[in-house]
Amino acid sequence: MAVKVPIPKLGQSEETVTIASWRVKEGDTIKKGDILFEVETDKAVLEVESQFAGKLLKIFIPAGKVVPVMSICAVIGEAGEAIPAVEEVKAAPAPAAEKKAAAPAAAAPAPAAAPASVPKSTGKAQQEDVRFEPASSSGPSPADHKPNPSPRARKYAEEFLIDLNKVPGTGGDSGRVTEQDVKTYLEASGYNDKKITPVAFNVARQENLELLSLDGTGENGRITLSDVKDAVMEKPQEMNTMRKVIAQRLTESKQRIPHFYVTTSIDMSELAAKRSELKERGINLSVNVFIVKAVALALKEFPLVNASTDGKSVVRKSKVNVGVAVSIDNGLVVPVIKNTDRKDLDEIQAEVADFADKARKGKISPDDMKGGTFTISNMGMLDVENFCAIINPGESAILAVSSAMPTPVVKDNQIVIRNMMKVTLSCDHRVIDGAMGAQFVNAIKKKLEDKKLWDSMV
User: Fold this and answer.
1) pLDDT value for 85
2) Dihedral class, residue 399 (left if φ above 0, else alpha if ψ from -120 to 50, else beta)
3) Which pLDDT score, from 0 to 100, does residue 138 have?
4) Largest Cα–Cα separation, the chain
């Protein structure tokens, strides 16, 4: 019996998803546990396994479409079996922040042939023997936006790589664009003075670029393939789902949360010596593990830093759940170490390593990123002296950790070289005042510089 395959709900907060890619095609034999497709949520790209066996009879939702969770995306059954009716899935509505975006920019036309005033295209490279794979183009031809242009005007604009929206119309009461309007526009715009190589013209046509928008750097201002490649590179590229959500959430954070910043320098020399001592005993703990633990202990002392606010009330969190930002190819994820203050260093090490591995493989789940009360953004491995992070909505602070660097400092009235690491706390001023922010970072500093503390834990 044919079964309908829904797109599963992968987290409590997920309402829409995008099928990033299908791993199978219609007609394939499917076994239970086979990967059917990858879905992109606002936090990660995840693989979805089949719960059924049989033939993949039909795919209803193509890759790239944003749809509500639990939408029916495919049917699996026996070969030759009737495909049950499935209601068409409409694209999910865009988030409010996206709906406020500017109207779509005018795309360029999809011309059919080279005009007489530029070199005729033969489909083969002339003058420049170059292989070039053009990027795919999306969006309608600009000619589609102009109200009811005449067919001859449309054809003429397509042939000459002209944006029909820019052509003033003189036909009738509606200002319909006629063929003569296009010819007049070409003459007035200096189009006939443009020179372009055949290869460049071919690529410009494939990429829906408007010829008048191209500047030539060749001899006598001739438009070359290099000029067209530059224009292709500068075409707007839609953000993936994760980057859109990052942009939306962090923009809201900076607009709504009054940030202020507190920086201190921490002497990591004793901790470095402790780590070397542990390595000799076969215990390998990263610097990040000690930072996470020190932050968790400090959060227990400063419950307001482990809180959140809506601007009217403050919620102190009973749990200390530290999120650790992990950079991946298409964005940033923040897996959360639950009850961090209660965990041993080796437990934290194992969780951080596991989360980092899962994140880079695209296997981290929305549940792995739920429930954070405070976040650490550590760029210590990237050779940076200092930076400030943006507070995650729902939290009241975030700690930016920079690189530990050999630095001349005064110690016991002597100038010595120590491994100094700057940390900067970004605070929500609605909850945390300057004195508390300073006390909190100094509590972290005191713990990281306290060798006896770490001796007692390992």
Assistant:
1) 85
2) beta
3) 35
4) 89
Q: Contact at 8 Å (CB) between 20 and 38?
A: yes
Residues of the chain with CATH 2.40.50.100: 3-93
- Which tokens belong to 214? 């191209």
Question: DSSP character for 139?
Answer: S
pLDDT at 134: 31
Sign of CA dihedral 384, 386, 390, 396: positive
Measured between alpha carbons, how far is 235 from 294 in angstroms, rounded to an integer?
A: 46
By C-alpha distance, which of 322, 375, 318, 373 is closest to 348? 322
- Would you call 259 a catalytic residue per the annotation? no
- Which pLDDT score, from 0 to 100, does residue 48 have? 87
The model scores a pTM over 0.90: no
pLDDT at res. 151? 87
The CATH architecture assigned to 3-93 reads: Beta Barrel (2.40)
Mark the ranges of the chain whose per-residue pLDDT is less than 50: 94-144
Beta bridge partners of 267: 420
* 240 touches 190 (CB < 8 A): no
From the candidates 32, 342, 429, 446, give the one annotated as an active-site residue: 429
Where in the chain is CATH 3.30.559.10?
Answer: 257-457
pLDDT of residue 302: 97
Dihedral over alpha carbons 84, 87, 91, 96 (to 10 degrees): -140
426 vs 404: CA distance, rounded Å? 19
Per-residue pLDDT, 43:
64
Q: Dihedrals φ, ψ of 230, to 5°? A: -60, -40
Q: Burial of 198 by CB count in 10 Å (0-12 exposed, 13-18 middle, 19+ buried)?
A: buried
| Alpha helices, DSSP H, located in 310-420 | 345-360
Q: What is the CATH number of domain 257-457?
A: 3.30.559.10
Strand 322-324 to strand 336-337: parallel, antiparallel, or no bridges (unpaired)?
Answer: antiparallel
Query: At residue 177, what is the residue type?
Result: V
Type of residue found at 329: D
What is the spatial distance between Cα 20 and Cα 47, in angstroms, rounded to a whole number? 10
DSSP 373: S
Q: Are 398 and 305 in contact (CB under 8 A)?
A: no
Determine how many CB atoms are found less than 10 A away from the CB of residue 412.
5
In this predicted model, what pLDDT tens digit does every residue of 121-174 receive, in sequence order? 333 334 443 322 333 333 334 444 555 788 888 888 888 888 888 888 887 667
Residue 15's pLDDT is 77
